[in-house]
């Protein structure tokens, strides 16, 4: 299918994101104070920039791991079937775990990932999502910490893609089709 022409309108500036990431990291640091090590699990690929910025502001010993679940492919609509494409390297039984997600949209991905991780018996399992689109929710799942609630718009930038493009934008923008 040929790519439709679109422009990207800035929605959240890089400066606003940085301030919010710092505030989230402070809350996470306070909440997990006393942990011997926090396992920070980034959901690939959309969270890679967010997790990189977030862990540098967290004042605790951290271990970073990644998990990849299938989601949109190159489409703009969510698929209900969620598969694990790349699993964690480390076990999480009895450990403090923070899942870092780019966007909670319908909620299928996050709820599926949480079911899998919960079954592994972590001591504590929390979620930090950069963006939340509550209007799109089909599964009742909530992140412990959310960066920004946004309206039902398709967004890109700061790690988030549209058909594998625009992840390298420093801000978050919404996609506006020209025709
Ligand atoms: P969910 O399973 O519908 O909650 O989808 C979550 C995943 O879909 C996110 O982790 C993103 O990878 C992707 N996604 C949701 N909304 C957008 C968007 O606006 N732009 C790009 N990817 C999105």
Automatic annotation (TrEMBL):
Record bears the keyword Iron-sulfur: no
Chief location: cytoplasm
EC number from the UniProt entry: 2.4.2.8
Family in the record: Belongs to the purine/pyrimidine phosphoribosyltransferase family.
Gene Ontology BP annotations: GMP salvage; guanine salvage; hypoxanthine metabolic process; IMP salvage; purine ribonucleoside salvage
Broad class of enzyme this protein falls into: transferase
GO CC annotation, single: cytosol
Keyword Ribosomal protein: no
Reactions mediated catalytically: GMP + diphosphate = guanine + 5-phospho-alpha-D-ribose 1-diphosphate; IMP + diphosphate = hypoxanthine + 5-phospho-alpha-D-ribose 1-diphosphate
Cofactor dependency: Mg(2+)
Annotated pathway: Purine metabolism; IMP biosynthesis via salvage pathway; IMP from hypoxanthine: step 1/1
Protein's organism: Phaeovulum veldkampii DSM 11550
One Pfam family this sequence matches: Pribosyltran
Compartments reported by the entry: Cytoplasm
Keywords carried by this UniProt record: Cytoplasm, Glycosyltransferase, Magnesium, Metal-binding, Nucleotide-binding, Purine salvage, Transferase
Domain of life of the organism encoding this protein: Bacteria
Boundaries of every Phosphoribosyltransferase domain copy: 15-162
Protein name per its UniProtKB record: Hypoxanthine phosphoribosyltransferase
């Amino acid at each position: 299918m040929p790519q439709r022409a679109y422009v990207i309108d800035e929605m959240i500036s890089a400066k606003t994101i940085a301030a919010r990431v710092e505030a989230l990291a402070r809350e996470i640091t306070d909440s997990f104070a006393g942990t011997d090590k926090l396992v920070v699990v980034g959901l690939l690929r959309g969270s890679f920039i967010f997790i990189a910025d977030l862990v540098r502001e967290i004042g605790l010993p951290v271990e970073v791991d990644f998990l990849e679940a299938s989601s949109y492919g190159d489409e703009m609509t969510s698929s209900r079937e969620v598969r694990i494409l790349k699993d964690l390297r480390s076990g999480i039984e009895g450990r403090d775990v923070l899942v870092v997600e780019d966007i909670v949209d319908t909620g299928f991905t996050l709820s599926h990932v949480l079911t899998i991780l919960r079954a592994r018996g972590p001591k504590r399992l929390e979620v930090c999502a950069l963006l939340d689109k509550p209007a799109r929710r089909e599964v009742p799942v909530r992140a412990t910490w959310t960066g920004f609630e946004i309206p039902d718009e398709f967004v890109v930038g700061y790690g988030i893609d549209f058909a594998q493009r625009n992840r390298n934008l420093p801000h978050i923008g919404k996609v506006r089709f020209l025709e």
